């Protein structure tokens, strides 16, 4: 009589969790597409054409025309992010009770499917000197000469609001829709008005999630590029930091300097995200994802 064949050891026998291995493809994806390019860019930024190890960074911060791009970008990104969140909350509060919520939500998020370039082209046709808006206002005698709404700060600002609003709206709607209606109903039976219910029930629950929404929307707005070129004044008031990096890479062919600018851009973004999440952590101790509190 022959002995039965030995059982092949499983991953569990070797102390390896098979379910955990499912994370490996995603981890490999992140390393190849995000971690490796970031580290490569970081190392490249310390290999300037001229100067020492910090030559690129010294060059950037010694040129007011270059380090001024940080302020010009913040001047766009911060107001746009705050405005999008301020618009998203009241609209999401109304949309959650509507009968045709899906249809209205689809209409509101439509700009995010068009892309920034297509939105910019549409705004050029609509808000340009010969666009529909100016021609209509002149036709009805409301203005004598076209209003300048493109190729300046406001053109980029409007474009960022249109493309960024759907993103903040979807996140805000998901947070507000997840709040148990019984909480507001109980407060209403006790005589709380709509404003009081929002202030004392809804707002405390969504503030942690709004902090995360702010971070994501701010990073998206801070990296603006197509809108700043097509609708702004890239040589003047909308010379954002991403445009400065593109100029260094594709006009000066100085990839090391462009990498340094990209690293500075990342540091500013990480700084604001870290500040907001730190403030959020003072009031909220929960999952990092931060849906409703």
UniProtKB/TrEMBL annotation:
Q: How does it sit in the membrane?
A: Multi-pass membrane protein
**Subcellular localization:** Cell membrane
- What organism does this protein naturally occur in? Ancylobacter novellus (strain ATCC 8093 / DSM 506 / JCM 20403 / CCM 1077 / IAM 12100 / NBRC 12443 / NCIMB 10456) (Starkeya novella)
One annotated GO biological process: transmembrane transport
Give the family this protein belongs to, as stated in its UniProt record: Belongs to the binding-protein-dependent transport system permease family. CysTW subfamily.
Entries under CDD domains matching the protein = TM_PBP2
Q: Which UniProt keywords apply?
A: Cell membrane, Membrane, Transmembrane, Transmembrane helix, Transport
Record-linked PANTHER family:
INNER MEMBRANE ABC TRANSPORTER PERMEASE PROTEIN YDCU-RELATED (PTHR42929:SF1), INNER MEMBRANE ABC TRANSPORTER PERMEASE PROTEIN YDCU-RELATED-RELATED (PTHR42929)
Residues in domain ABC transmembrane type-1? Answer: 70-276
Q: What is this protein called?
A: Binding-protein-dependent transport systems inner membrane component
- Can you cite an annotated GO cellular component? plasma membrane
Question: Which Pfam families does the annotation name?
Answer: BPD_transp_1
The record, for InterPro entries, names: MetI-like, MetI-like_sf
Looking up PROSITE patterns in the UniProt record yields: ABC_TM1
UniProt keyword Transport, yes or no = yes
Q: Which residue ranges traverse the bilayer?
A: 21-46, 66-91, 103-127, 153-173, 201-225, 260-283
């Amino acid at each position: 009589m022959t002995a039965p064949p030995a059982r092949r050891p499983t991953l569990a026998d070797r102390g390896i969790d098979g379910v955990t291995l499912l994370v490996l493809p995603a981890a490999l994806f992140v390393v190849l597409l995000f971690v490796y390019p970031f580290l490569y860019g970081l190392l490249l930024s310390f290999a300037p054409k001229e100067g020492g190890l910090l030559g690129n960074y010294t060059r950037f911060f010694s040129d007011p025309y270059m380090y001024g791009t940080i302020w010009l970008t913040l001047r766009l990104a911060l107001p746009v992010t705050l405005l999008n969140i301020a618009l998203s909350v009241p609209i999401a509060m109304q949309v959650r009770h509507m009968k045709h919520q899906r249809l209205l939500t689809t209409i509101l998020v439509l700009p995010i499917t068009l892309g920034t370039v297509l939105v910019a082209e549409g705004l050029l046709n609509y808000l340009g000197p010969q666009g529909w808006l100016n021609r209509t206002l002149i036709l009805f005698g409301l203005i004598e000469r076209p209003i300048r709404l493109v190729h300046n700060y406001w053109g980029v600002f409007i474009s960022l609001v249109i493309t960024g609003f759907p993103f903040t709206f979807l996140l805000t709607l998901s947070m507000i829709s997840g709040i148990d209606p019984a909480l507001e109903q109980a407060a209403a039976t006790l005589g709380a008005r709509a404003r009081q219910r929002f202030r004392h029930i809804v707002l405390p629950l969504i503030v942690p999630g709004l902090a995360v929404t702010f971070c994501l929307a701010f990073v998206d707005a801070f990296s603006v590029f197509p809108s700043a070129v097509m609708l702004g004044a890239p040589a003047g008031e909308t010379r954002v930091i991403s445009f400065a990096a593109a100029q260094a890479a594709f006009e000066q062919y100085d990839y090391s300097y462009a990498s340094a600018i990209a690293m500075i851009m990342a540091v500013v973004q990480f700084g604001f995200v870290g500040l907001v999440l730190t403030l959020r952590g003072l009031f909220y101790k929960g999952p990092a994802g931060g849906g409703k509190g």
